[in-house]
Amino acid sequence: MDPLRYSLADVPLFRGLDERELHKLGELLIPRLYKKKSIIFTEGSEKESIYIVRSGLVKAFKTDADGHEQIVNFLGPGSMFPHTGFFLLSPYPATTEAVMDTQLLAMPLKSFEHLLTSTPSMTIKVMRVMSETIQELQSKLQELTGQDVMLRLLSFLAAMAEKQGRVLPDGRVKLSLPVTHQELGSTIGTTRESVTRLLAQLRKEGLLEVSRGGFVITDMPRFRRWGRGDKTSD
Question: Taking the model in full, what pTM does it have?
Answer without folding.
Answer: 0.73
